[in-house]
Amino acid sequence: MCTLVHGVPLEPGYARVQVDVTIKEDALVPVPIAGKIETFCQAKKKEVKPRKTKIVNAYQKLSAEMKSVKPTDNVPRRFMLLYRHAMVILKESGDSIQIPCGAEVFGVEKVIFLLHENVMALLEFKMIGQGIISTYMAYLYTEVRKRKRSDMYAFVDPAATFKLNDDFEAYIIEGMNTGDSRIFLMPHNENYHWILIMIWESEIFILNPLAHPTNFLKLEAALTQAVRSYNAQKGLVNKNPKIKNLSGSPKQPGEYECGYVVMRYMKDIFEDKEMKFITKWATKTRKCYTKEELDEVRFETLQYVQEFV
């Protein structure tokens, strides 16, 4: 006896399935329903009727590919699902993992797209970039909100601060208008090197993962102008911002970990309820973060990304 799916008889050799996720949304379903369900995009959350043999063969092939993937020693075993997804699904389809961010995170609503190479860099503890750091900031915001400290911390989107132009100044001013008593955390990439800027009560703090002193003259000038313009708008004409290099902030242990160090800076600042890090990191030191300390923020990011797979 045939059963019905959306009014269409279910013929022998077919099975009902539900489409939850699609790789190519404009792909045609095996047995379309004219005007209703013709593509996989239209089939999401609805039952469609592919042949059992095609389902089984495709599933067996994908399952075999997933099981055959062997991770490197750097990949944590707890994230094998994410590793196999990156190696099989993302790599073959060219698709991405999408991390949604509400306007409360960076001031504007956006989606972070993590490609195969982004996820693999994080899994294998290699050099990371803007997408991964932004993802960690999105995760950290969930912790800020959970602990009801949104009035204390704000995050500046690394994608909006790449160019030090008029848009940069406007973005900083717009953020500070949400509350200048908040701590603004701004990762910034300078010549393929990540540093962290912290703006708090018209003072600018620079945290640099490199052990040797570095000048960021253009960045400092742009930040100074932005904060000065904000102060002028608030009637604080004579209040020029001070720039302080926290030379005692922990350093990167090798040549490529600056992105992880910046993430760790933000974690330590958030967890320091008494704000002792300002005095603790004021005195120059060559102390480095350990691999275990950097793995803490790496694992937090991986766990957060895996929730979107």
Could you give a short description of this structure?
By secondary structure, the chain is an alpha+beta fold. It is 41% helix and 18% strand.
Please provide a written account of the structure.
With about 300 residues, the chain is α+β, with helices and mostly antiparallel strands. The chain has two domains: about 5-65, no CATH class; about 75-305, Adenoviral Proteinase, Chain. About 40% of the residues lie in helices and about 20% in strands. The chain is built from eleven helices and 13 strands. The chain has helices at about 40-45, 50-70, 80-95, 105, 115-125, 130-145, 165-175, 215-235, 260-270, 275-280, 290-305, and strands spanning about 5, 10, 15-20, 30-35, 35-40, 45-50, 95-100, 110-115, 155, 185-190, 195-200, 205, 240-245. The strands form five sheets. A five-stranded mixed beta sheet has the order 9-10-11-12-13, with helices on both faces. Strands 1-2 form a two-stranded antiparallel sheet. A two-stranded antiparallel ribbon has the order 3-6. It is globular. The two termini are about 40 Å apart. About 30% of the residues are buried.
